[in-house]
Amino acid sequence: MNRVTIFSICASAGFLLYILEMVRRRKLREEYSILWLFGSAVILVLSLKKDWLDTLAHAVGIVYPPSFLFLVGILFILLILIHFSIAISKLHQMNKKMAQELALLKSGNEAESRSNPETEK
Amino acid sequence: MITQPDTPIVIIPAYQEERSIGDLVRSLRERYPYDVLVVNDGSTDRTSETAREAGAIVLDLPCNLGIGGAVQTGFLYARDRGYDVVVRIDGDGQHEIEDIPKVLEPILAGRADAVIGSRFLGEAEYRGSIPRIFGIRFFRLLVNLTTGYRVTDPTSGFFAINRRLIEFYSDHYPSDYPEVDAYILMHRLKARTIEVPVRMYDRTEGKSSITAFRAVYYMVKVTLSYTINCIRRFE
Question: Which residue has the higher pLDDT, B162 or B232?
Answer without folding.
Answer: B162
